[in-house]
């Protein structure tokens, strides 16, 4: 199992943006993100001061988009930390496996779309940061 992902492997991917006076449209198709997705969900109505995430995945990859509003994604690879603000609906953050993430500072009305490479499997989650650091040392 490759646990060598670092924050340097993170990517911001621009989605196609079709501009129209009636409103803009962006699309995610098979070649936009580098994995076949098996699950899509979204976070919304996150109360002020609340945080989401607080875990890493052993195998799952994700692509996060702020469809509305903004939020911060605090990322850690076991050694280094980086914070990315998502606030543009045609730009998303590609998260490889083996990266700890915490989502915080949600603006009012923020919506976070998550596209995942796998279906939900509890065994894929690392929910304790100390266990995550040990996992990265393997």
Automatic annotation (TrEMBL):
InterPro entries: QdtA_cupin_dom, RmlC-like_jellyroll, RmlC_Cupin_sf. Pfam families: FdtA (PF05523). SUPFAM superfamilies: RmlC-like cupins. Coiled coil: none annotated. CDD domains: cupin_QdtA-like (cd20292). Residues 9-135 form the Sugar 3,4-ketoisomerase QdtA cupin domain. This is WxcM-like domain-containing protein. It comes from Flavobacterium rakeshii.
């Amino acid at each position: 199992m490759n646990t060598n992902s670092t924050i340097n492997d993170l990517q911001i991917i621009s989605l196609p943006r079709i501009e129209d006076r009636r409103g803009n449209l962006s699309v995610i198709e098979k070649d936009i993100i580098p994995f076949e997705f098996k699950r899509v969900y979204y976070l919304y109505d996150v109360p002020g001061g609340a945080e989401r995430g607080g875990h890493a995945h052993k195998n799952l990859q994700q692509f996060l988009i702020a469809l509305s509003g903004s939020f911060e994604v605090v990322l850690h690879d076991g050694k280094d930390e980086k914070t990315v603000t998502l606030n543009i609906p045609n730009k998303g953050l590609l998260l490889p496996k083996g990266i700890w993430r915490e989502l915080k500072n949600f603006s009012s009305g923020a919506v976070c779309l998550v596209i995942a490479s796998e279906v939900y499997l509890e065994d894929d989650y690392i929910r304790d940061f100390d266990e995550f650091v040990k996992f990265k040392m393997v």
